[in-house]
Each structure stands twice: as C-alpha cells, then as structure tokens.
Amino acid sequence: MKRGDRTISAVQWWPVPTSQICRRWNTFAMSADIEELYPWPETGRWLRAVMVMSPDGATVGKDGRSRSLSGRADQQVLHAIRTFSDAILIGAGTFRAERYGPPKVAEKFVAERRSSGLSPAPRLVIVSGTLDLPWDEPVFQEGPQTPIVVTKSDLPESVLAAAAGCEVLQSPGDGLDMKWMVAELAARGLNRIACEGGARLLNSLAESGCVDEWDVSISPHLPSGSVKLIDSRTDDGFVFTRFVRSGPND
Predict the structure, then answer these.
(1) pTM to 2 decimals?
(2) pLDDT at 1 over 60
C-alpha cells in the first residue's frame, strides 16, 4: 500500500505483520494517516462490522448506548472507517439509542471521495422490521441524502406511509434477507458498507455470511469503573489481553 492510497488489493489485504499488531496498538489512532490503517478493497463489495465492547462482553453502557463505552481513539477509528465508506448500516435499536444525524466526513476528504467516484458523504441505511422509528429526527429531514430504510415485505400501507420521504427496500419472503439487502445496496453503488450494529443486526449478517471484516475495539470502561490494559499478545489467531482495575492515579 502506498502512502495516500486508501484501497489495497486482496493479496495485500492485511498491511501489518501480525507480530507487529500489538506494538502499534498504543499510538496508531493518533496517526495522521489512520485512514490508511483501515483501507477498503479496490473493487467489489466489502462489509465491515464495526463495534466496541467492554472486557465483560457488553456492547452498550449503562445508558444503553455504545457511545458511553467509546473514547477519543475509538471515535477516531470509527470516523476513519466512515471516511471512505459508501454506506453506514445500522439497526433500528441502534438508531433510536444513538440518534444518528446526517452522515458527514471531514471537509478535507470530500474532494478525495469525489475523485474516487464516491458521493460527498456516506448514505445512512436503517434496518427495521416494523418501521417503529422516530420519524421526526433531523436525519429524515436534513442532509443531501435521505436514509434508505430496509424492512419486511408484509407491512401494511398505513405503516409504510411513515417512510414516504425515504427510499424503502422491502425484503422478499418472510423476515429480512441479509444477502438480498447487501446485493440491493451494491446495485445502488453502495459497495463499501460499515455496519455499526446493533448486536442483532451484526449477528444476522454474520449468520448469513455477509461480514467480510470485523473491526472490534475493546473499551477500558465497565459499569463498575474503568480498567487498564497492561498486556496484549496474539497467537494462533487469538488475541490475548490483560486488564487490571484502574487505580486513583491512572
């Protein structure tokens, strides 16, 4: 991968030798070129599962939001992944809890997105089987692109009417077909998909074989307080971490 190149070929997909992963972990999110550490493939569809979790396995904090587990470095990673994505995919529960606004990227990347054939910003895609969404949220009224809403095929017209201002994709058959959804998004030019949860949507995508990459951040925040990472190693495909309870001076 060359400096400034935001994509990478399949044979060079992982740019960092696994023996170096943990050594780079302490400061990589502070890099001015963090986007280059999360490149997208040059061609084809690619769906990334982007999530943060605490050492006890929780994916949301006490307030029911993943943001309360996040921090400066994790937010930098999240925005780096979004920067050259086509779509941000979320479930209805995540949308209700996190209150997403219109997706944006830093102004300095807009021209680079355009030159790469991307729209100025990613498009938001919301998956909801019932369309029980807060339709008065600004994201449905503002921004250059209204969200795409993915739902079931058997909803009555009275329910569908609430999403009249959005592009609605109704999955065929019973339930929500993840493979069909990903193909429909690709047909609209949305090949680089960053799925930000929630857990049910990520599980459905994983079970359907739709996830190409998992970008997982482990947070030091727990409901009972914070912990401190003192060691991280990798072997046999596993990542082994050691966290200890933080003291008053940490």
Answers:
(1) 0.86
(2) no
